[in-house]
Here is the input.
Amino acid sequence: MTDTPFEAKARAREALQTFEPYDPAFTPSKINLSANENTYSLPEGYGRALAEAMASTALNRYPDPMANELRDAIAERHGVERRAIIVGNGGDELLFNLLFTFCGPGKRLVSCPPDFSEYALFAQMNEVDYVPVWRRLDDFSLDVEALVEAACDAALVILTSPNNPTGDVLDHAVIRRLLDETDALVLVDEAYVEFAPEGTSVVSWVADNPRLMVLRTLSKAFGLAGLRCGYLVAAPEVVDMLGAIRQIYSVDVLAQAVALAAIRKRDLLVPTIEKIVSERERLGVSLSGIEGVTVWPSAANFVLARMRDAAQVRARLRDEHSILVRDFSAAPGLEGCLRITVGTPEENDCVVSALTTLLEGK
Ligand SMILES: *Cc1c(COP(=O)(O)O)cnc(C)c1O
Here is the structure.
């Protein structure tokens, strides 16, 4: 026994001692365009099917650990076998488990920032050597030669298409080169692919390329961010490894039942997705019409916009207009950038008019 004050951090695993709880402490706001959620009300038949699935789910039994009925529906969606699918508590759990399983201390993860910050975060947690291959900071294009070179020593490469937060789509030739010229596992994160042009996905490549994996989520286009369900399409051997290490009940009975209904009724979402895509184009044009605002083209359900005093603009949007957007202005390579989720036409009009007021004083 000693008199030293209790310090949980000092007892934690060394790699974790600098971490703090993630609590974005959102100010309740009228319009939330900060997290790339689908802000539209659910299409009639889709919403009803989800509600019925929820109401008829018994909570006294444990979930099916491998969620086989859901896997079958997803497998059918993509024309693959059940053995090529694994589900997770959001894409996030699958990302963490991939790093836990196929990387770990001393192994390398390569990705191309600015991209999804969780890659680097989960790498740090798992004591993985994270090697960023930075995009060009004007058009966010990839440095393909540097990527291929870095990938030669990597256990895992993660590419995001469309990318968050820059919105651009990956050239398939880059994936081809990584598969042909390196021995790394390659994950293509397609969280936003439903909003991208037809033909963007590389899911159909997985069958012939066992080192390729594709991540999908129900959090974005499917309008189910709160449900926590994502999945990976991968070689059966990869699925088996991930199936062996996963928290067995991480996808609960409600998530499995609702996700199953959502996958089965996915055609009902098409009009909403088309609307979001057309609103994205309209929002992009309107924002670039505001003095001093630069907008990058996007294939996702958000746009990245650069402007003067972005951090202050974001705070005034929140405080004076009750609109939340995501501030990236302090992130490396994203000086002056805000990421704005594409909302309903009314929400988009509000953010454009608020920004016009703030930046042009009108
Ligand atoms: C949102 C997102 C995910 C997955 O999110 P979940 O809600 O955990 O399914 C994965 N990758 C990217 C790039 C994302 O933006």
Summary: Residues 217 and 230 are 4 Å apart (CA to CA).
